[in-house]
Every structure is written in structure tokens, then in C-alpha cells.
Amino acid sequence: MLSKKMETALNEQIVREFAAEQLYLSMASWCETNKLPGVASFFYRQSREEREHMLKLVRYINKTDGVAEVPACKAPQKAFKSLLETMELSLAGERAVSKAINALVDMSLTIKDYQSFNFLQWYVSEQHEEEALFTDVIDMIKLFSKDEKGLFFLDREIPKIGQNSDQIEKV
Predict the structure, then answer these.
(1) Which residues contact 164 (CB under 8 A, 6 or more apart)?
(2) Is 169 within the bounds of a domain?
(3) CA–CA separation, 116 and 128 (whole Å)
(4) What's the total number of domains in the chain?
(5) Residue 170: its pLDDT value, please?
(6) Distance CA 160, CA 55 (A)
(7) How confident is the model over 7-28, as pLDDT tens digits?
(8) Which structural domain, as residue segments, surrounds residue 116?
(9) Is there a domain that residue 51 lies in?
(10) End-to-end alpha-carbon separation of the chain, Å?
């Protein structure tokens, strides 16, 4: 059985995952309209992953005698200065989510909710992968954006990054 304190905290995480999903969708749209179809497909994939993360939380809460809340979310940023800005915002967002997940893990241990602790380990691992992914992409952009053909190369290569990582468990 899920404590009310953990239920509330997990519902707050649902909001974070939903906001990330919407931001990535907005970034995908921006990339697509700025003639970066490869990077757009990367962000569409990221948006789907965030939705899956959110649904995983919803199902967990509901299956542990809690009530998951479907959140409202403010509209995400829709215009960006550059490809680098989208990735830097993404990394900052993933780091904020990691911090929130770590706080949930800490809470689960404090209140001795070992079931939630076990559930959250997947998110801890996932956040490590997400931060590494965006760090790699940012490094790649900084390296190749100095070349006039670099943007073309980046648009082709960024969608390939992270595709071979473990697939997200079906919700």
C-alpha cells in the first residue's frame, strides 16, 4: 500500500514527466520547421519516452492502492535560438528530473517504502542514461558546428544516438 506522502510525491513526478514530454514535442516541431528532420525524429522519440515514463508512474500508483492524477501542464517553450540551445535545455531538464527522482528514492528509504524504492531504481538508471545521452549530443554539436557542413552531419547522426540502448518496458 502506498502512503499518501509517497502518492503525492509520485503524482508530482507525473507532472514533471508530462512537462518533459511536451517540451520535447515542442522541440521536435521546432526542429522540423527549421529543416532538421533527423533531429526532429530524435525529439519525437524523446517525447514518446517521457510519455512512457509518465504512464509507468500512473500504473504504479494505481496498482499500489493510490490514485494517479492526470496533470495539466503549462505550454512549453516553442521557439529556440539554436540546436545547441535545445540540447542544453534538455540536459538541464534531465538533471532536474534526476534530482527529483533522487529525492523520491531518499523519501522511500526514509519512510521505509521498499516497494517504491525498488520501483524507482529503474528511473535512477534511466536518468543516468538520459544525462549521458544529452551530454554526448552537446559535445557532438560543439565539435561539428564549427564546420559549415556540420549541421547536415548532425541532423543525420543525432537520431542514431541512444537507439541501441535498452528499450523501455511496455506500459
Answers:
(1) none
(2) no
(3) 19
(4) 1
(5) 40
(6) 25
(7) 999 999 999 999 999 999 999 9
(8) 4-160
(9) yes
(10) 20
Spatial distance between the Cα atoms of 142 and 100, rounded to a whole number of angstroms: 28
**How many residues appear in the chain?**
171
| In a domain? residue 130 | yes
Share of the chain above pLDDT 90, in %: 80
Domain with 128 in it: what CATH number? 1.20.1260.10
Determine, yes or no, domain membership for 155: yes
* pTM, 2 dp: 0.89
Each residue of 57-84: pLDDT tens digit?
Answer: 999 999 999 999 998 888 999 999 999 9
**Three-state secondary structure of the chain:** CCCHHHHHHHHHHHHHHHHHHHHHHHHHHHHHHCCCHHHHHHHHHHHHHHHHHHHHHHHHHHHCCCCCCCCCCCCCCCCCCCHHHHHHHHHHHHHHHHHHHHHHHHHHHHCCCHHHHHHHHHHHHHHHHHHHHHHHHHHHHHHHCCCCCHHHHHHHHHHHCCCCCCCCCCC
Cell readout for 90 is 534538455
